[in-house]
Write a structure and sequence with these properties.
With about 150 residues, the chain is α+β, with helices and mostly antiparallel strands. The protein starts with about 25 loop residues before the first strand and ends with a helix. It is about 10% helix and about 25% strand. Strand 6 and strand 7 form a beta hairpin. Strands 3-4-8-7-6-5 form a six-stranded antiparallel beta sheet, with no helix packed on it. Strands 2-1-9 form a three-stranded antiparallel beta sheet, with no helix packed on it. It is globular, with a radius of gyration of 17 Å. It is built from two helices and nine strands.
């Protein structure tokens, strides 16, 4: 199915390629490649669409009121290109933090964790290494950065 950023279509439940994907990696906008959701926040809500508790960065998405189909919902759009991604809901099960971002598989591309750092520039790598999961000290010890990078290369 070809993704068009103007399309507000919803794929049939349990038909998308990512509803049952549990590999580690990054879900990106199928149109512009913006990083949207990490596999770390993906969970199975039982609806047949990929569900996430949080976007990678709130600045990467736009939320807009959607009154279509005689419902009141909040639409999720890619902030960079305006592509329709899905909807967000406040109906998480007890014990979960965040919201339920219900996203169409056809609006996403998935990049496995093993490929995330390939082809990035030095600045992107340094920024990624300072994500809070681990610490790389590039400016003081180049070898620490090399070790950190080699874990993902």
């Amino acid at each position: 199915m070809t993704t068009k950023k103007e399309s507000k279509d919803t794929e049939v439940p349990f038909s998308g390629k990512y509803w049952n994907t549990y590999e580690k990696g990054m879900y990106k906008c199928a149109i512009c490649g913006a990083e949207l959701f990490s596999s770390d926040t993906k969970f199975d809500f039982g609806t047949g669409w990929p569900s996430f508790t949080d976007p990678v960065k709130l600045e990467h998405i736009e939320l807009k009121e959607d009154l279509s189909h005689d419902m009141r919902r909040t639409e999720v759009l890619c902030k960079k290109c305006g592509a329709h991604l899905g909807h967000v809901f406040d109906d998480l099960p007890a014990g979960r933090q965040g919201k339920r971002y219900c996203i169409n598989s056809f609006s996403l591309n998935f990049e496995k964790e093993e490929n995330i750092f390939r082809g990035r520039g030095l600045i992107d790598l340094i920024e990624s290494c300072l994500c809070g999961t681990h610490l790389c000290v590039f400016s003081l010890h180049f070898s620490f950065f090399t070790i950190c990078y080699s874990l993902y290369a």
